Amino acid sequence: MAASNDFPGPIDVPGSDDPELPGEAEATDSPDEVADALRDIAEVPAVEIITTAAVHLMSAAAVKCGLADDPGEQLDLDEARKLITALAGLLTAAAPDLSDAHARPLRDGLRTLQLAFREASPIPDAIGLGPGEKWTGPVT
């Protein structure tokens, strides 16, 4: 539709047939692009995928524990508990398959998060009952 000088152009309405809407580019990926992405992920070693997932869980948990820029706005101990528990489960399950060089810094980060959670909590959990301690044992 050509726009005239007398009237403004068409209004973009979500759900219209405009191909430039956000999110539509991903939906129109060609089969070749999808195959390339699948090949790329197939070439990534499992240790790297596990480590990346653990780092994402750690980062999110740190923010939820109030260790980011705006603790007053971002502190959410319920969410932090879930993230720390998931991280502890992942690391406990994956540790036998990870080298010590990969597992040790992740375990150290997990312990730091568990301690930060305890410090941020107005009513700290009993030793051994904090987030992830079911998998890691008591953290003091």
Structure in words:
- With 140 residues, the chain is mostly helical.
- It is 59% helix and 0% strand.
- Helix 5 (77-94) runs antiparallel to helix 6.
Summarize this entry quickly.
The chain has seven helices and no strands.
What's the structural blueprint in terms of helices and strands?
Layout (H helix, E strand, L loop, with lengths): L23 H4 L3 H12 L3 H19 L6 H4 L2 H18 L5 H21 L12 H4 L4
List keywords for this structure.
about 0% strand, single chain, mainly alpha, 7 helices, about 140 residues, about 60% helix
Radius of gyration: 23 Å
Number of helices: 7
Pattern of helices and strands: HHHHHHH
Structural category is mainly alpha
Beta percentage is: under 5%
Shape estimate: globular
